[in-house]
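User: quick one, fold this
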Amino acid sequence: MIRTVHTETDLFEAEEAALAAAIRIHSATAGNADAYRRALGDLIQRYERMMRESRRMIRHGDRQEKELNSLNVKLRDLAEELDFKARHDALTGELNRGAIIELATQILARSPLSLVVLDIDLFKRINDEYGHPVGDEVIVELVRRIRTVLPTEAQIGRVGGEEFTVLLSRYSIDSALRLANEMRRVIADQPFEFAGGIHVTASFGVSASAMGSDFAQVYARADAALYEAKRAGRNAVREAKR
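Assistant:
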């Protein structure tokens, strides 16, 4: 059986030999100028080669480091993009159902929360009469409109096809009802400029809960108020029963 012995290659073996020869001549008690010149010339030649190789390896290392840094940036950007897509609704760019529930639960653990649930009235009729692409445009425009009246800290989540949840941390029930009515108005006041102008309305349920409340119960109360608004004729805001 043949065994292969791997030895580490010394890139500067020749340079070390030239240096050793120069040291020997320098240490000799007797010598002549030609020997010194030859040793010095060989040493200079080897030193120049070593410098070239060193620069080449440094450039190669710098290039590899740059490539690694670029790859790390791309991986970080990809991870952030995947995380965003996992938490946000593809159509509106707002939080999706799972993300808004997670956020609401976190808020309730540390502060009171007012919750607004809204649902587009007769949305199925819009899809049936004008088609789903128009229905998607209605959803996008509705979110754009309600954003214009909401404070920057408010969080919107799309929890169903045409149903949304708005989180208002530390807002009183009166302030939350006022904002819900502003959202209702900004949706209903002007037609949506699709298919010749569609009149769109939405119904709202609003609840306010203390810190430590269970999200499922908070949502259920607001959802029940929403259906009271539907039964009252739609395009309305109702407060959840306390």
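User: anything notable?
Assistant: The chain is about 60% helix and 15% strand.
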